[in-house]
UniProtKB/TrEMBL annotation, chain A:
This is Antibiotic ABC transporter permease. It comes from Rhodopila globiformis. It is a multi-pass membrane protein. It is found in: Cell membrane. The keyword Transmembrane helix applies.
TrEMBL record, chain B:
Residues 20-253, 341-570 form the ABC transporter domain. GO terms for molecular function: ATP binding; ATP hydrolysis activity. Keywords: ATP-binding, Nucleotide-binding. It holds the Pfam family ABC_tran. It comes from Rhodopila globiformis (Rhodopseudomonas globiformis). This is ABC transporter ATP-binding protein. The keyword Transferase does not apply. The keyword Nucleotide-binding applies.
TrEMBL record, chain C:
This is ABC transmembrane type-2 domain-containing protein. Residues 129-369 form the ABC transmembrane type-2 domain. Signal peptide: none annotated. It is a multi-pass membrane protein. It comes from Rhodopila globiformis (Rhodopseudomonas globiformis). GO terms for cellular component: plasma membrane.
C-alpha cells in the first residue's frame, strides 16, 4: 500500500511540479469556461433589420413599431422602396427586411389578408430560423390584438407554449452544463493521454517496469492524477456554473458526482489506451486530439444527436461524452436523481471497465 | 594550478594571421538567478592551416565556442574575429567561407545520400559543372559510393557522420568547425573520419574539432584544453605530454588483484590518478612525488599520454578520491562459477531487421561483464531482453534462474537498473526521486533512512537535494541514477551506457565505484561504446551489427588481434581486426 | 535572395513532403476526416422530432390538428393517453414536447373560442426547443387556413406574412456549416503543417546546419512557405470539391474569388504556424500550441456555428483578431450569396493585413542565430 501511495504521489509531483503544466491545467479551462459560456449561444438579440414601409396608414406604422419595440430586433435603416434592400442584406448590414406594402392598412380594414413581406438572410440557417420565429411571434401578437380591437373573428384555437426545465429558453442553461463536461473531458484526456508516453519517451517507463510494481499498479498510479484533477476541476466548474452563470442545479448532486466519476474512469481508460499505443508524445497528442474532436462533436454538446444520420447515432453509443451530457443536463435542469440516470450509468461503467482492461493489456503488451 | 604555458602557444607564423581570434570573449545563457556563464574571458588564437583539437570535461564551453565561431551566437563580451572578420557583424560573410558540422548534423533523413549532397551543393552555391568531381572525391573518401541511393535515415551512425562531413566539405571551406564528430561512432568509421580530416591539411584548411575521446587529441597538431568556460592550456599534444615525463608508471603487484592495487594506490599520497591497464595499473604521480612504498609492487616508467595531461590539468576539479572500502576477500574469489546470468542463442528481430543474432554468454557472481560495441550494435536490445523489457524472438534467458519477463514482480527486486541517458524524473527533485525509488522497492523505516543517508553520503548529492533532477549536471545525474538503482542493495546491477556523454574524469570516477561494488560481490552487466572501457571489465563480449565478434577477458581479446605489425594492440585495434575477420567469414559463407 | 539556393530548399521540402506521409496526411486526410465528421455529425436541422399528442376527447376537430402535425416532415407524432403519460415520456426523453388538447377543445373552437392548444416543450436544448416551437406555429397556421377554407369564414389571421429566405431557402444547416467548417479546418491545417515541420528541423538538428550555411533567413522561410502553400491549396481544393459534390452546397460566387481569398488566408495560417514554431522549437509544444490557439477559437468564435452578432460586445471585439472570422464570412458569402464585394473586400483586407503581420513578425524574429 505504501508502495502504491508513493507511486501516486510521484505521478502528481511529475505533473504538478512543472509550472508550465500546472498553468496548462488551470488557466485554459477557466478562460475557456468564461469565453465559451458567453460566446456559445444561439440566442439572438439586436437582430439588425431594415424597414420598407410604403403604407400611408396607421396599421403599417403599428406593425413596424412592434418590431422596433421588441428587444430582439434593432432597426438599422428605413428605406422608401425596396431599391437598396438587397444591398443591405447582401453585405450583412441587415439580417432581415420587413416590407409593408402600399395597401396594408386598407386590406386590413376591409378584412382582406394583408400581405407583409419578410425577407431574411439565410446564410446562417439557424440564425434565420430563430429570427423568423421571433418575427412570426410579433406578427401573431399583432393579429390577435387587431382581431380583438376591430372585432374581427378570432382564431378558433390558440397555441399556449410553455417550456419545461428552461422556461425562458436560455441557450446558456443548455451550453454551460455541457461545458462542464467538455472541459473536464479535455483536461482528463490531456493528463492521461500523455502520461504513459511521456515516461516512455523520457526513458523512465523502463525504469518503472524493472521495479517490483505490477502492470495494474502502474496503470492505477497513472489513472489517479486524471481522476483527482478531473474531479477537482469539474467541481470548480460546476460551482462557477451555478454561482456565476446562474444555471440552476436542481437535481441530485450525488447523482451528478457519481455520473462524473464513472465518466472520468472511462475517459481515463481511453486516454491511457491512446497513451499506451503511442510511441512518441506527438503521436499521443495527435491521438488524443483525433479522439477528442469527434467525441465532442458527436456528444450532443452543441447539436442534438437525433439530428445525426442513423449510422452516426449508433457510433455515439461508444462515446462516454454522450452519456455525460445527459447526466449533466438531467441533474442541472431536469432535476434527475439516481434512478432516472441508471440508463446512463451502466453504459459508462461498462465503457470504463472495458477501456481500463484494454489499457492494462496494451501497456503490458507495449512493455515488450 | 600550474602556470599557463603561454610561451608555448603556437605563435602565428608571419603572413599567416590566425583563423580565429578570441579576445576576452564571454557568453552567458539564461537570465536572472539561473544565469550561467558558458564562456568567460576567453582569449585564444587558432592558427590557420592546422588541425586543432578542442577538449574539456562536460560543460567546458566547447559547443558554445564552436557556435560563436560559426556566427550562430553573439558574444556578450569581448571580440571574436573569424578569418579576419568580426563575427558579431559579418556573420553572413563568415558563413559563406566556413563549414560547420553541429553535434547532431542536420541530415535530411527522408532524402537519399545523393539527394543530401545535391541539396547542400545547391545551398553552398556549387555550379553544376563543379559537382561531379566533388561528389566523386567525397564519395571515395567516405566510402559511401555504394550507398548513394539509400535514405540517410537508414544509414548507420558512422555513415551518417561521414555523410554529414561530406556535405560540409562540398565547397572546401577555409575554416572547418566540427562538434564531436566521432561520438558513439564505431572504431572503423572513427578512423575513416579522422583520415578525411587529416587529408584537409594538404588543402590548407583550418580545422577546429571538439572531442571527448582523449586519444584523438594525439591526432591533432595542437590542442586547446578548456574547463568551465575558461582556457586551461593550449599546446602541442606531445609536448604537453612530454612535460609529464617521469611521472607515469606501469605498476604490477605479485599477489594483489589489479583492482585492489588500484584502490590501494589511489589512497596513497602523491598519486594523482590510477587507471587499469593490461594486467596491471597505470599510475600518474603528482609533480615531484615519488612512488609510494608498497610491498610487492614493481614500478616501470611509462610514456605519458594525453589522457595523463587531461587528468593532471583537471585534477583541481576532481571532486574527491572515492574512498574505497577494500573488500579484498570477495574480490579475488571468483572461482565458484556461480552463474547468475545465462544467455543462450538469443535472437531478436524487428520486422525484417535482425537486431540480435545468436548471442550467448554467461556471467558469474561478482563479475563485471561488459557488452561493447558501437551505437546500433545490438547491446541495448540484448540488455532490454535480459531485464524483461522486451521479449526475445528466440533463445534462452535466465537471471538468477528466472526469466524476468515471466517471473513474478518480486523477482525484479534482484536487479538494479540504470537506463540509457539516466532516465530520472526530470521535474522531480533529487530528494523526491530517491524517495520514490526507495518506496518503490518497499524500503521502510530504519532501513529507508539508512539507505537514503548512505546514498547522500556516497554520491555527495547533498548540494543538489532540492534541485530538479533534470537541471543538475550530467555527472550528478549519473550519480543519482546509480544511487536510485542501488538503494535496495540488489545483487545484480544492469547499467546501459552509463558513461555516454560523461567526461573522462567522471567516467574514471564512475568505474572506480563499479569496481568497488564488484569487489563487494555485486554482479555488474554494463554496456558501453567506449572501447577503452573494456579494460575495466573482467570479461566482455564485443558486438557488431547484432552479432558477437569475440568474448573473453580483455587480455584474451587483445591477444587474439596481436600480429607482428601490431604486437600490443589496443581494444580498438582488436575491434577493427575482429570486424575484418568477421566480414571475411560472412563473405566466405555467402 | 539567391534563386539557386531557394530552388534547392523548395526541392528539398517537396521531396520530404512526398516521402514523409505525415505532411500529406495532415494536408489531405485530416480535412477529409474533419469534413465528413462535421458534415454528417453536426446538423441543426431538426426533422422527425418525436412529439406527443394528448387529446382528452378525441373527435374530428382534434383529429384535423393532429393530422396537420402528422403531415409535417418535422414531427414524429406519438399519441399518448394522458397528461401523466406525456409527462413521463418527456422525463424519459422519449419525446421533445407534447401537444395537449383539453376535453372542451372541440366545443370551444366551434363555439365562442378560442380553444387552447397547450404545448409543453423540453426547454433544456433551448435552440431545438425554439425551432420546434417555430414548426408548431407553422403547422398551427396551416391548420387555421384549412379551417377557414372549410368554413368559408373571414381570415383568422389578418396579416398574411410572406416570408422569403434568401440564399438558403430550405434553411439547410449544412449549407452554412460546411463553408465555415472549411475555414476552421484550414486554420488548423495551415498552422499545424508549418509549425510541425519547422519544429522538426530544430529537433533533428537540420536547422543548425542550415543556419551555419550561406542561406539567408528569408530564403529558409520562403522555402518553407511555398511548398506548404501549394499543399494547403490542394487541401483547400479537396475540401471545396467535397463540399460541392458530397454535401451539395451551392457555390454561387466565382472560383477565382474563392481561390484568391483562400490563398490570402493560407498565407495567414502558414504565417501563424511559422511564428508558433519560431517560439516553440519542439514538435510537441508547437503541435499543442497550434491546436489550442487555432482550432478551439476558430470553432467557437469564428461565427462558423455560433453567430458572432449574438455574442457579448467584449467577445465580439475579441473575434476581430481571429483570422478565421474573416475567412468564415468570405466563405459563407461566396458559397451562398455570390461575389458580394462589400463583404469580401473588407474581410480580404483584414486577412492581407494579418498575413503581412504574421510573416513580418516571423521574419523579424527569425535571425540566423541560436540565442
Amino acid at each position: 500500500m505504501a508502495r502504491l501511495l508513493a507511486l501516486i504521489r510521484k505521478e502528481f509531483l511529475a505533473l504538478l511540479r512543472d509550472k508550465a503544466s500546472r498553468m496548462v491545467l488551470i488557466g485554459p479551462p477557466l478562460i475557456q469556461l468564461l469565453v465559451f459560456s458567453y460566446a456559445a449561444t444561439f440566442d439572438l438579440n439586436n437582430i439588425p433589420f431594415v424597414v420598407i414601409n410604403e403604407d400611408p396608414g396607421l396599421a403599417g406604422r403599428e406593425m413596424v413599431a412592434r418590431f422596433e419595440g421588441s428587444p430582439s430586433f434593432r432597426q438599422v435603416a428605413a428605406l422608401p422602396s425596396t431599391a437598396g434592400m438587397a444591398d443591405l442584406i447582401d453585405h450583412r448590414a441587415a439580417l432581415l427586411a420587413i416590407h409593408v406594402g402600399r395597401d396594408f392598412s386598407r386590406d386590413l380594414m376591409i378584412g382582406r389578408p394583408a400581405p407583409l413581406q419578410i425577407v431574411i438572410d439565410g446564410r446562417n440557417s439557424n440564425t434565420a430560423a430563430i429570427a423568423l420565429s421571433y418575427a412570426s411571434e410579433i406578427v401573431l401578437g399583432f393579429d390577435a390584438d387587431w382581431a380583438a380591437a376591430h372585432g374581427g373573428r378570432a382564431a378558433p384555437a390558440t397555441l399556449e407554449v410553455r417550456a419545461w426545465y428552461n422556461p425562458n429558453l436560455l441557450s446558456r442553461w443548455f451550453v454551460v452544463p455541457g461545458i462542464v463536461g467538455l472541459l473536464t473531458f479535455v483536461v482528463t484526456m490531456l493528463v492521461s493521454g500523455l502520461s504513459v508516453v511521456r515516461e516512455r519517451e523520457a526513458g523512465t517507463f523502463d525504469q518503472l517496469l524493472v521495479t517490483p510494481y505490477r502492470p495494474w499498479e502502474i496503470l492505477l498510479g497513472k489513472a489517479a492524477p486524471g481522476l483527482l484533477i478531473g474531479a477537482a476541476e469539474a467541481s470548480v466548474i460546476v460551482v462557477v456554473a451555478v454561482t456565476w452563470f446562474g444555471v440552476p442545479l436542481i437535481g441530485s448532486v450525488v447523482a451528478l458526482a457519481l455520473g462524473l466519476a464513472l465518466f472520468l474512469v472511462s475517459a481515463i481508460g481511453i486516454g491511457l489506451m491512446i497513451s499506451s499505443l503511442a510511441a512518441t508524445q506527438q503521436q499521443g497528442l495527435l491521438g488524443a486530439f483525433l479522439f477528442l474532436v469527434p467525441a465532442i462533436i458527436l456528444s450532443g454538446f452543441a447539436t442534438p444527436i437525433e439530428n445525426m444520420p442513423r449510422l452516426v447515432q449508433y457510433v455515439t453509443y461508444l462515446n462516454p461524452m454522450r452519456y455525460l451530457m445527459v447526466i449533466l443536463r438531467g441533474t442541472f435542469l431536469e432535476g434527475d436523481g439516481f434512478v432516472a440516470l441508471l440508463g446512463q450509468y451502466w453504459p459508462l461503467a461498462l465503457l470504463g471497465a472495458a477501456s481500463m482492461t484494454a489499457a492494462t493489456a496494451l501497456a503490458r503488451r507495449r512493455m515488450g | 594550478m600550474p602556470p599557463r604555458h603561454a610561451g608555448r602557444s603556437p605563435v602565428a607564423e608571419p603572413g599567416h594571421p590566425p583563423a580565429l581570434r578570441f579576445a576576452a570573449v564571454g557568453k552567458r545563457f539564461g537570465s536572472g538567478a539561473r544565469q550561467v556563464a558558458a564562456l568567460s574571458d576567453l582569449t585564444l588564437s587558432i592558427p590557420a592551416g592546422r588541425i586543432t583539437g578542442l577538449l574539456g570535461p562536460d560543460a567546458a564551453g566547447k559547443t558554445t565556442l564552436l557556435r560563436l565561431a560559426a556566427g550562430l551566437l553573439r558574444p556578450d563580451a569581448g571580440r571574436l574575429d573569424v578569418l579576419g572578420l568580426d563575427a558579431a557583424r559579418d556573420a553572413a560573410r563568415i558563413q559563406a567561407r566556413i563549414g560547420y558540422m553541429p553535434q547532431r548534423f542536420g541530415l535530411y533523413e527522408d532524402l537519399s545520400v545523393q539527394e543530401n549532397l545535391d541539396l547542400y551543393a545547391q545551398l553552398q552555391g556549387l555550379t553544376p559543372a563543379e559537382r561531379p568531381a566533388r561528389y566523386a572525391e567525397l564519395l571515395r573518401l567516405t566510402a559511401l559510393g555504394p550507398f548513394g541511393h539509400r535514405r540517410a535515415g537508414a544509414l548507420s551512425g558512422g555513415m551518417k557522420q561521414k555523410l554529414g562531413l561530406a556535405c560540409t566539405l562540398l565547397r572546401v571551406p577555409e575554416l572547418l568547425l566540427l562538434d564531436e564528430p566521432t561520438v558513439g561512432v564505431d572504431p572503423i568509421s572513427r578512423r575513416e573520419l579522422w583520415a578525411i580530416i587529416a587529408n584537409l591539411r594538404t588543402r590548407g584548411v583550418t580545422v577546429l574539432v571538439s572531442t571527448s575521446y582523449l586519444d584523438e587529441a594525439e591526432r591533432c597538431d595542437q590542442v586547446v584544453l578548456m574547463d568551465a568556460g575558461r582556457l586551461l592550456v593550449q599546446g602541442q599534444p606531445h609536448q604537453l605530454a612530454a612535460d609529464l615525463q617521469g611521472r607515469c608508471f606501469a605498476v604490477r603487484h605479485v599477489t594483489l588483484d589489479r583492482r585492489v592495487l588500484q584502490q590501494r594506490l589511489l589512497t596513497a599520497p602523491g598519486v594523482t590518478d590510477v587507471r587499469l591497464e593490461g594486467t596491471g595499473v597505470r599510475a600518474l604521480l603528482a609533480a615531484a612525488a615519488v612512488p609510494p612504498p608498497l610491498e610487492g609492487s614493481t614500478w616501470q616508467p611509462a610514456t605519458p599520454e594525453f589522457a595523463d595531461v587531461f587528468v593532471d590539468r583537471l585534477q583541481a576539479r576532481q571532486a574527491r578520491r572515492v574512498a574505497l572500502q577494500v573488500a579484498q576477500a570477495a574480490a579475488t574469489d571468483k572461482t565458484d562459477k556461480d552463474v547468475v546470468l545465462h544467455v543462450a542463442r538469443l535472437n531478436r528481430f524487428f520486422d525484417q531487421f535482425h537486431a540480435v543474432n545468436d548471442v550467448s554468454f554467461d556471467v558469474v557472481r561478482g563479475e563485471v561483464f561488459g557488452l561493447l560495441g558501437a551505437n546500433g550494435a545490438g547491446k541495448t536490445t540484448t540488455f532490454r531482453m535480459l531485464c524483461g523489457l522486451l521479449p526475445a524472438s528466440s533463445g534462452e534467458l535466465r537471471v538468477v534462474g528466472q526469466d524476468l519477463r515471466t517471473a513474478p514482480a518480486e523477482a525484479r527486486r534482484q536487479i538494479g537498473y540504470v537506463a540509457q541517458k539516466f532516465a530520472l524524473y526530470g521535474n522531480l527533485s533529487v530528494a523526491q526521486n530517491l524517495a520514490f525509488f526507495a518506496a518503490a522497492y518497499g524500503l521502510r523505516k530504519a532501513r529507508l533512512r539508512a539507505r537514503l543517508d548512505w546514498a547522500l553520503a556516497e554520491f555527495e548529492l547533498g548540494p543538489y537535494l532540492d534541485r530538479n533532477a533534470g537541471d543538475i549536471p550530467l555527472g550528478y545525474k549519473q550519480r543519482l541514477a546509480l544511487a536510485c538503482a542501488l538503494l535496495h542493495e540488489p545483487p545484480i546491477l544492469f547499467l546501459d551506457e552509463p558513461t555516454s556523454g560523461v567526461d573522462p574524469l567522471a567516467r574514471s570516477e564512475f568505474w572506480q565505484r563499479i569496481n568497488q561494488y564488484a569487489a563487494a560481490g555485486t554482479t555488474v552487466l554494463i554496456t558501453t561504446h567506449f572501447m577503452d572501457e573494456a579494460e575495466y571489465c573482467d570479461r566482455l563480449v564485443l558486438m557488431s551489427q547484432g552479432s558477437v565478434l569475440a568474448s573473453g577477458t580483455p587480455a584474451d581479446i587483445r591477444a587474439r588481434a596481436a600480429s607482428p605489425d601490431v604486437p600490443n594492440p589496443t581494444m580498438e585495434d582488436a575491434f577493427i581486426s575482429l570486424i575484418a575477420a568477421h566480414e571475411a567469414n560472412l563473405r566466405r559463407a555467402a | 535572395m539567391n534563386l539557386g539556393r531557394l530552388r534547392g530548399l523548395i526541392w528539398k521540402e517537396s521531396v520530404q513532403i512526398l516521402r514523409d506521409p505525415s505532411a500529406l496526411a495532415i494536408a489531405f486526410v485530416l480535412p477529409l476526416f474533419l469534413l465528413l465528421l462535421f458534415g454528417y455529425g453536426v446538423s441543426l436541422n431538426a426533422e422527425h422530432v418525436p412529439i406527443g399528442v394528448v387529446a382528452e376527447h378525441p373527435n374530428p376537430q382534434t383529429e384535423t390538428f393532429v393530422g396537420t402535425l402528422r403531415h409535417s416532415r418535422y414531427f414524429d407524432v406519438h399519441e399518448l393517453p394522458s397528461l401523466a403519460a406525456a409527462g413521463a415520456a418527456m422525463a424519459q426523453h422519449e419525446i421533445r414536447g407534447f401537444v395537449w388538447m383539453r376535453s372542451d377543445f372541440a366545443r370551444q373552437t366551434l363555439g365562442p373560442g378560442p380553444g387552447t392548444i397547450g404545448v409543453a416543450l423540453n426547454g433544456v436544448d433551448a435552440n431545438t426547443a425554439r425551432l420546434v416551437q417555430g414548426y408548431l406555429t407553422q403547422s398551427w397556421q396551416i391548420w387555421l387556413a384549412q379551417q377557414q377554407q372549410e368554413q368559408g369564414a373571414a381570415p383568422a389571421l389578418p396579416v398574411a406574412a410572406q416570408t422569403r429566405i434568401w440564399f438558403n431557402p430550405a434553411l439547410r444547416s449544412r449549407d452554412y456549416l460546411v463553408p465555415g467548417l472549411i475555414a476552421v479546418i484550414m486554420t488548423l491545417i495551415g498552422a499545424l503543417l508549418t509549425a510541425l515541420v519547422v519544429a522538426r528541423e530544430w529537433e533533428r538538428g537540420t536547422m543548425e546546419a542550415l543556419m551555419a550555411s550561406p542561406v539567408t533567413m528569408a530564403e529558409i522561410l520562403v522555402g518553407k512557405l511555398l511548398p506548404y502553400f501549394v499543399l494547403g491549396m490542394g487541401g483547400m481544393a479537396l475540401s471545396v470539391g467535397l463540399a460541392v459534390t458530397l454535401f451539395a452546397v451551392p457555390l454561387r460566387g466565382s472560383l477565382l474569388v474563392l481561390a484568391g481569398a483562400s490563398a490570402l488566408f493560407l498565407l495567414v495560417a502558414l504565417g501563424m504556424g511559422l511564428l508558433i514554431s519560431s517560439l516553440a522549437r519542439n514538435q510537441f509544444v508547437a503541435g499543442q500550441i497550434s491546436i489550442v490557439v487555432t482550432f478551439l477559437p476558430a470553432f467557437i468564435l469564428s461565427g462558423f456555428i455560433f453567430d458572432i452578432r449574438s455574442m457579448p460586445t467584449v467577445i465580439q471585439g475579441i473575434t476581430h483578431i481571429l483570422p478565421a472570422r474573416y475567412f468564415v464570412s468570405i466563405l459563407q458569402t461566396v458559397f451562398l450569396a455570390g461575389d458580394v464585394w462589400a463583404v469580401i473586400l473588407p474581410d480580404a483586407g483584414a486577412l492581407a493585413m494579418m498575413a503581412v503581420f504574421f510573416l513580418g513578425v516571423t521574419l523579424l524574429r527569425s535571425r540566423k542565430r541560436l540565442d
